[in-house]
Amino acid sequence: MRLAFILLIITLSGCINTRVGDFTVLSTKNVDTSNYIVVGRFESEIKNDVKSAVDDCLEKGGGNILINAVVEYRERFFSGYVVIGDVCIRKKAFPLD
């Protein structure tokens, strides 16, 4: 029983999240920030670098920019960066007429 408890503590001690930053607007693309609407909140897969994590999040939402974005470094079974944020797309992509 003690051995199982010790192994559990050792396993859980390796699960660490580190917040890298909070961003009002985050993008790896050159974009004009006016006339955008929020598509939804998305989370990237764990990636080796921040740029790949941002790109993954943007591709999941089909948008160009992220607002209210959080970048975290996670250490679990796989280590890497995760980006969570509101993906936005241009308004004129959705005709409202």
Structure keywords:
elongated; 2 helices; alpha+beta
Task: Describe, in plain words, how this protein is organized in 3D.
With 97 residues, the protein is of the alpha+beta class. The protein has one domain. The protein is 25% helix and 43% strand. The protein is built from two helices and four strands, in the order H-E-E-H-E-E. It has helices spanning 2-13, 50-61; strands spanning 16-26, 36-43, 65-75, 79-90. A four-stranded antiparallel beta sheet has the order 1-3-4-2, with helices on one face. The chain is elongated and about 60 Å long. 19% of the residues are buried. The mean pLDDT is 80.
Number of helices: 2
Rg over alpha carbons: 18 Å
Largest sheet: 4 strands, antiparallel
For the record, the count of structural domains works out to: 1
Uncertain segments: none
- Summed over residues and divided by their number, the pLDDT gives a mean of 80
Fraction of residues in helices?
Answer: 10-25%
Oligomer, anyone? Answer: single chain
Q: What is the total tally of β strands? A: 4
Percent strand: 35-45%
Query: What is the succession of H and E elements?
Result: HEEHEE
User: What sort of overall outline do the alpha carbons produce when their principal axes are compared?
Assistant: elongated
Query: What class do helices, strands and sheet pairing give?
Result: alpha+beta
Q: Ends: how far apart?
A: 67 Å
Numbering strands along the chain, what is their spatial order in the largest sheet?
1-3-4-2
